[in-house]
Amino acid sequence: MRLLHTSDWHLGRSFHRVGMLGAQAEFIRHLVATVREHDVDAVVVSGDVYDRAVPPLAAVELFDDALHRLAALGVPTVMISGNHDSARRLGVGAGLMGSAGIHLRTDPSACGTPVVLSDEHGDVALYGLPYLEPALVKDAFEVERAGHEAVLAAAMDRVRADLAARPPGTRSVVLAHAFVTGGEPSDSERDITVGGVAAVPAGVFDGVDYVALGHLHGCQTLTDRVRYSGSPLPYSFSEANHRKTMWLVDLAADGAVTAERVDCPVPRALARIRGTLEDLLADPALARHQEAWVEATLTDAVRPTDPMARLTERFPHTLTLVFDPDRAADGPEVSYARRLAGRDDQQIAEDFVTHVRGAGPDAHERAVLRDALDGVRADDAAREVAR
């Protein structure tokens, strides 16, 4: 059986204020084309379909379009809810959709009830484990401690118990949304440490043929049978070196797994550049990034004038600007807090300018600061008299 493993669509999410809905729609078209081109038998989507519990209308419309396109192919699709999704909202109409081949698994209590598909070699049981928030499900799973490992282990016990009651040779696939030990996170995943230690060992999933993971946004192989598909689009500059793909997984008659990556459309390359403003504007090696989304880190000792405006002349898609000056280890910013003690208001204000800008105020700026401080003192004195 051939599976297409994807996850973390985050429909409705933007990239540093740039709307991604068009790129997400292009991904859906690519997904459908891949299913058709590669004769996929089933699609598995391992959570975070939406970016938030109450998604914008445009995201809901795109999801609806995706469901109709997948159903029209006649290829079964199994989806679980992730930590960004509202499981209840995503699962509305699940029973009706199942008759159209779209199987939504958002109810933790149904972890041990698979979607059963068949090919020429027999049955394949696909178990959907939606994101399990430990504090919310620990009682239902009868675990003593509200930890991610404990609730996932309890869910997998149900999976293995159901699988053991099925005919010998039944192959098995688990969809799960979790942070599994050995995975490499990025800056764009929401922290799931609330409710217990976030990471769970891959051994929790022992006993099944393939584990289709979601949550981490980089495509990763933890073992031959345990993989993250990653997000199909980048959602932070920490993903600049990611290759965005889906997994095309072949499950042999004996449960052996072979997998290859299918590239996703790239709306625009990402680039992280660092240096002084003048170097970034002049370096010919950076010409390749002129059409990329850019995160620029400026190392100038003194903050340049209008840095964003000047950067966007060369890099028109600059989205973030970070100021990280290269200064001597004994520079004024190192001991700034200690240097406040015993200093008058004028000195503190001048030190603050130096701390922020990298250079102290000139004579005119010192006069402006002095006038401002004198004005504040005069106001304070007038208020005291009025009392």
Automatic annotation (TrEMBL):
Residue ranges of domain Nuclease SbcCD subunit D C-terminal in the record: 267-355
One of the protein's GO biological processes: DNA replication
Pfam families, per the entry: Metallophos, SbcD_C
InterPro entries registered for this protein in UniProt: Calcineurin-like_PHP, DNA_Repair-Maintenance_Comp, Metallo-depent_PP-like, Mre11_N, SbcD, SbcD_C
Domain spans labelled Calcineurin-like phosphoesterase: 1-218
GO molecular function, one term: endonuclease activity
UniProt keyword terms in alphabetical order: DNA recombination, DNA replication, Endonuclease, Exonuclease, Hydrolase, Nuclease
Keyword Calcium in record: no
Role of this protein: SbcCD cleaves DNA hairpin structures. These structures can inhibit DNA replication and are intermediates in certain DNA recombination reactions. The complex acts as a 3'->5' double strand exonuclease that can open hairpins. It also has a 5' single-strand endonuclease activity.
NCBIfam families: sbcd (TIGR00619)
Oligomeric and partner information: Heterodimer of SbcC and SbcD.
Similarity comment text for this entry: Belongs to the SbcD family.
This protein's name: Nuclease SbcCD subunit D
Organism whose genome encodes this protein: Streptomyces griseoflavus Tu4000
Gene: sbcD
